[in-house]
Amino acid sequence: MSTPPPSSPVRLLLCDDHAVVRAGLRALLAGADGIDVVGEAATGEEALAMAAHLGPDVVLMDLQLDDGMDGVTAIRQLTAGGSRGPRVLVLTMFDTDADITRAIEAGATGYLLKAEQPEELFTAIRDAASGRSTLSAPVADRLLNRLRSPRPTLSAREQEILAQLARGLGNREIARALFISEATVKTHLGRIYGKLGVETRAGAVAVAKERRLLP
């Protein structure tokens, strides 16, 4: 059931680096009751400046912005003022664990995928203006699955080696830094890969960042 529109229209600021996407959203939202698009920004910097000037209730924010500030940084700054600032609703094509976690931790009220139906978007915007959170079904599923999955348990030495991996060090450099042999490094790397379900150094670092295993 859709949320009824508030008595006064929700003032909405769009932020997406593609002009065609912004035009399409504006045209789509023109037919939505209780939503008034007050501005469009192509960059995170523009979104901050326009939000300060226009005072929107909600900022509809893409995460992947080509130039300058990324969406997560913009979210963090937009929501830094707490209740005085706008709510930020993410609208993106990306649903990786890392993207979702970073956006929510930065202060996003909701996280939607661009494949959503128009009515779902309208409802999410109105909910955001009222302080209610909305997640796309695939995003909610990912978060639940992550919560249900036990965190891999790494030994202290494995955590040390993983931290060195994240710094971009090779096996020989890791061995020297930790005063162990290269053979020992390789043995620990094999165990780390198995616990994280990956096959490469880059994969290990990516999963470790997603699961917040790095210091």
Automatic annotation (TrEMBL):
Keywords: DNA-binding, Phosphoprotein, Transcription, Transcription regulation. Residues 147-212 form the HTH luxR-type domain. It comes from Streptomyces doebereineriae. The modification 4-aspartylphosphate is found at residue 62. This is Response regulator transcription factor. InterPro entries: CheY-like_superfamily, NreC/VraR/RcsB-like_REC, Sig_transdc_resp-reg_receiver, Tscrpt_reg_LuxR_C, WalR-like. It comes from the Bacteria. SMART domains: HTH_LUXR, REC. Residues 11-129 form the Response regulatory domain. The keyword Transcription applies. PROSITE patterns: HTH_LUXR_1, HTH_LUXR_2, RESPONSE_REGULATORY.
